[in-house]
Specification:
Belongs to the transpeptidase family. This protein folds into 3 domains: about 120 residues, Roll (Nuclear Transport Factor 2, Chain: A), CATH 3.10.450; about 160 residues, Penicillin-binding protein 2a (Domain 2) (Alpha-Beta Complex), CATH 3.90.1310; about 290 residues, DD-peptidase/beta-lactamase superfamily (Beta-lactamase, 3-Layer(aba) Sandwich), CATH 3.40.710. Helices cover about 30% and strands about 25% of the residues. The chain is of the alpha+beta class.
């Protein structure tokens, strides 16, 4: 009895101690089993990050599951899904549960994402919920031997069209010529590269080094030429005789010819690493994008939206694709064609007029007076494919006297108003003179019309005390010169800077000092005079019209300017164009550089019917001999086509 009475209190004490200990730990011996939600959320986080180390599995290990996910995600780069726990189905008292996970992949820049739900079984084992692993936990129907891959399909790039809808920039057949290293190797590959380079007129040493550095199965491109290129006719048979040489037919977006409208239309090429980085997911390696000109400015419109497919891919031991299935797809959307105002007839005539000008930059622009549409904008070979025609920044010289005349008209002058034309004029210590050969019989007090017709510098400069720089700027703006307009293409509409310097102000009257213009600028000046109101340029159809200047050109003002410019053709420096039906004209020269005497830019602007033209030559004695021949050639070719 003694022993029994002593044991019972000990049991009570031990049980009491355990209860106290459990209470102090915040739990109960009779607590409910854990909920499966925490295990499901850990799985969701692991699928989103690719690391399932914190997940408890019932039929695999976290390391094996993580390895499977790493392989499944390997071909999608850094792209990862957003995974959330939608719900958990868990019958009360059951050791089984089902978690529903919602996954979302932002696979493209479109508003549509790849989304799906997966049901994942969980089992309560020894008080812990464990995930039942299977490959389709990653995505529905993904097999144990499959991984995810994303395939992009670029749509056909849209065309750039001329004014009538004809194709300018479009896919044209080319030949990609290079060395196929599967057919030649070692020293012979280098020798073949040098031989091929000589036939392609590219650097032999550089191409040979490129071929040597390439892998044993590489095709190393040497040159891409149009299928119609004379090089293929001339050297095609010899190219075929080069061991390892290969000519691969392909399609490439190109203009009508290598030079036709090239600075305007631009070019297309493979996206650079910098462009891809700046695109924020829009561009990917291998994408074709506009590199310059309209192709670059309107790239998103022309490129369209690529198609996309998420695939479940089965690969062999060597990495080759054995099978693939589509899990999600977005259909590609073709780009929208861009219609320009270019007239092929006018552009070809302009290109032909400058074709022989290889020594120095030249340009010619033709604008439709009634609409401001750019019909042609060409540069000569000496311009090196620059944007000189539409965006050049050169001193316009005496062609700017059209604006100076308008400023004087606004001060009350007429075409008959007398201006003092002297041999020379000194302004604040700076001597200004007329061009060499200025006719002596046109000196003295002469009508403003005569001063413009024979381009007397001193007559216009003499008016600098009467017209402020601000008034000169306003007159230029009324004729279409406006530096700050946001153009829908690469262009420059001129600049007449404000100044307090008296000499610079005086020089502005004859288009020098810091006055700048492009051939497009001066064509618009002529068009504005001819139309009787400020003309804004149009190169891309469908764009909103550009705003008019604060002080538009008045019809009565334009009438005075037309009278003056008509006199240039009838009796002055523009007589050389009269036989071609030109009604209005103005020549111009502008000194530049450090030579003594300095070189001069040569200009000629002209108007006939509904066309205004500006021609520019970087170096010329005067507008009559240095620029007018371009307009003559242009109009003759244009009239014949």
């Amino acid at each position: 009895m003694l022993r029994a009475s002593r044991v019972k209190p000990l049991v009570v004490v031990a049980l009491t101690s355990a209860l106290v200990s459990a209470a102090s730990a915040g739990c109960s011996l009779f607590a409910s089993p854990p909920e499966p939600g925490d295990a499901a959320r850990a799985l969701a986080q692991g699928l989103a990050s690719g690391d399932l180390g914190a997940v408890s599995f019932g039929n695999t290990t976290p390391a094996k599951a993580t390895a499977f996910v790493a392989n499944a995600y390997k071909s999608v780069g850094t792209l990862r899904p957003t995974v959330a726990l939608s719900k958990v189905s868990h019958p009360e008292g059951s050791d089984r549960a089902t978690a529903t996970l919602s996954s979302r992949w932002d696979v493209s820049t479109s508003p549509t994402d790849w989304t799906y739900e997966t049901q994942v079984p969980l089992t309560l084992v020894d008080g812990q919920w464990k995930v039942t692993w299977s490959p389709d936990v990653v995505a529905p129907d993904v097999g144990a031997d499959e991984s995810l891959s994303i395939s992009r399909t670029a749509p056909r790039r849209a065309d750039i069209l001329d004014a009538s809808g004809g194709k300018l920039m479009t896919e044209r057949e080319v030949a990609v010529i290079g060395i196929d290293k599967t057919k030649v190797s070692g020293a012979q590959a280098s020798a073949s590269a040098r031989r091929l380079a000589a036939l392609l007129d590219i650097d032999p040493g550089r191409f040979a080094a490129k071929v040597s550095a390439a892998g044993p199965k590489a095709f190393v491109q040497g040159l891409t030429v149009r299928a119609t290129d004379p090089l293929l006719t001339k050297n095609g048979p010899a190219i075929k005789q080069v061991e390892g040489a290969l000519s691969v037919p392909a399609m490439q977006v190109l203009g009508p010819t290598r030079t036709w409208g090239a600075p305007i239309l631009g070019s297309v090429g493979e996206a650079t690493a910098e462009q891809i980085a700046k695109s924020k997911g829009t561009l990917h390696g291998g994408d074709t994008v506009g590199m310059s000109g309209l192709e670059h400015r309107y790239d998103s419109q022309l490129r369209g939206t690529p198609g996309l497919a998420v695939l479940a891919v089965k690969r062999g031991a060597d990495g080759s694709v054995l099978d693939k299935r589509e899990l999600f797809a977005e259909v590609s959307k073709e780009g929208e064609p861009l219609r320009t105002t270019l007239d092929p007839k006018a552009q070809s005539a302009a290109e032909a007029a400058l074709a022989s000008q290889t020594a120095r930059p030249t340009a010619l622009v033709a604008v439709r007076v009634s609409t401001g549409e750019v019909l042609a904008a060409a540069v000569g070979p000496g311009a090196g494919g620059s944007t000189l025609a539409l965006a050049g920044k050169e001193a316009p010289g005496s062609t700017f006297k059209i604006a100076s005349s308008l400023a004087l008209v606004r001060k009350g002058a007429t075409a008959a108003t007398k201006l003092p034309c002297t041999d020379a004029l000194t302004v604040n210590g700076r001597r200004f003179g007329n061009y060499t050969g200025y006719p002596k019989d046109r000196l003295g007090d002469i009508p403003m019309q005569t001063a413009l017709a024979f381009s007397c510098n001193t007559a216009f400069i003499s008016q600098y005390p009467k017209v402020s720089q601000d008034e000169l700027i306003q007159a230029a703006q009324s004729l279409g010169m406006e530096e700050k307009l946001d153009l829908p293409f690469t262009g420059f509409l001129g600049s007449v800077p404000a100044t307090d310097d008296v000499v610079e102000h005086a020089a502005s009257f004859i288009g020098q000092g810091r006055v700048e213009a492009s051939p497009l600028t001066m064509a618009l000046v002529v068009a504005s005079v001819m139309k009787g109101q400020t003309v804004r340029p149009a190169l891309v159809q469908g764009n909103d019209a550009l705003p008019q200047p604060a002080t538009p050109l008045a019809p009565a003002e334009a009438a005075v300017l037309r009278q003056e410019m008509s006199a240039v053709v009838k009796e002055g420096s523009g007589k050389v164009l009269a036989a071609l039906g030109v009604q209005y004209a103005k020549t111009g020269t502008a000194e530049f550089g450090t030579k003594n005497p300095p070189d001069t830019h040569a200009w000629m602007v002209a108007g006939r019917g509904d066309i205004a033209i500006a021609a520019y030559n970087e170096v010329g004695d005067n507008g009559v001999t240095g620029a007018a021949p371009f307009i003559t050639s242009f109009l003759k070719a244009y009239d014949l086509r």
